[in-house]
Specification:
0% of the residues lie in helices and 69% in strands. The chain has strands at residues 9-22, 29-43, 48-62, 73-91, 97-119, 123-128, 136-149, 154-165, 178-190. Strands 1-2-3-4-5-7-8-9 form an 8-stranded antiparallel beta barrel. A hairpin with a 4-residue loop joins β7 (136-149) and β8 (154-165). The two termini are 17 Å apart.
Amino acid sequence: TTLFRSSQTRIGAHWGLSYSTFTQPGDWDWTNRRSGGLTIEVGLSHAFRVAAEINYIDKWAGSPWGGPAWGNFHETLKLSYIDVPLYLRWMLKDSRFKWYIDAGPLFEFMVSKRKEMWHSILGTWEEPAEGDFRTFNLALGGGSGVEFAVSESLSLGLLAHYSQELTHPFTDNRRTRAIALQGGIQLMYSL
């Protein structure tokens, strides 16, 4: 049985975890958070499809632990985005299992910027993140996934994506870029 017709349009949802940090060496630790979104996919041919997504993703990164004489201190920078990737997707196998690879630009819109502070004596508190952040970032991303046809119109899959910002999240031109790795489960429905 053929899993996808060439002109087929599909909609879907995906959810999972994202792991993010900033590329400035030694300044930030990797932090895992949630991500999820919606997908619409349109067939261009039997092998190629265009997928547009709208995702909510947290790109959080923790600072290294400090140890002043009066207690340990740690902060986590919490940047949250709406990502809108536009992927060209290459479908590699036509059977009940379908493997694909994709790549394309991501348009990122910041929705919140917070900082969580933790101190071994004073406890935990949250405050607005200081500094000027770009509210729009451009990134490149790509990834892979595998889907299993549950029925003629429904498939279940696993996906993994990597993205790196082309612009700096900070307006003061610090040489940092956010990197995010996403993995999760997706459910697609053929219209």
